[in-house]
Amino acid sequence: MESAFVEDILAKIAAVLPQEWQGLKDDTCKNMRVVLQSIFERMDLVTREDFEVQKKILARAQEHIQQLTELLQQLEEKLHDKK
């Protein structure tokens, strides 16, 4: 997971820690960083860039399927007309 995202979450957590925990902020953030990274790794997330690439690949595949479907229909019509 992108570290900027994790760092943003940690900053937000640190901002809401009770005043008496501020002395433990560094230790708390280190532990939370490990926990968050572990959670995100188990979630098997992909980056936005990878997602956009896969979206484009899917769109091209759908276009090809549509073209092949139309070609198949034309060929079936020609075959039917010959009978």
Based on CA atoms alone, the radius of gyration comes out at: 26 Å
Share of helix, binned? over 70%
Q: How many extended strands?
A: 0
Overall pLDDT score: 87
Largest sheet: none
Run of helices and strands: HHH
Q: What is the end-to-end distance? A: 61 Å
What is the domain tally? 2
Description:
With 83 residues, the protein is mostly helical. It folds into 2 domains: 1-45, no CATH class; 47-83. It is 81% helix and 0% strand. Helix 1 crosses helix 2 (25-42).
Main traits of this protein?
rod-shaped; mainly alpha
Short overview:
By secondary structure, this protein is mainly α.
Q: What is the fold's blueprint, element by element?
A:
Elements: H1 3-16, H2 25-42, H3 48-82
